[in-house]
Amino acid sequence: MLVFIHGVLSDHLAWKYVAAELSTDYEIWLVDLPGCGASDAPRPAAIEPDGYSPTAMGERVLQAMRQCLRATDPRRQVTLVGHSLGAPWRSA
Description:
Blueprint: E1 2-5, H1 16-22, E2 28-31, H2 54-69, E3 79-82
């Protein structure tokens, strides 16, 4: 499975051509970070002060992935693909 995470001022459509090409061989997930594309966009005043920080966005993506993968094989390989703000910058 390939999970694509877009960068700053973008949304899941940034990956449409790459994802279309790879979808014949892989299961593809296109993520919209909080406040982008089709995702929820909470008002900054309604969330914690760092609610739109890279760390907070990464946590939201991780929570969503855990929920979606809960019923699948725990040995399933998942590859994150990102650029700009969506690029994984450290391992947990």
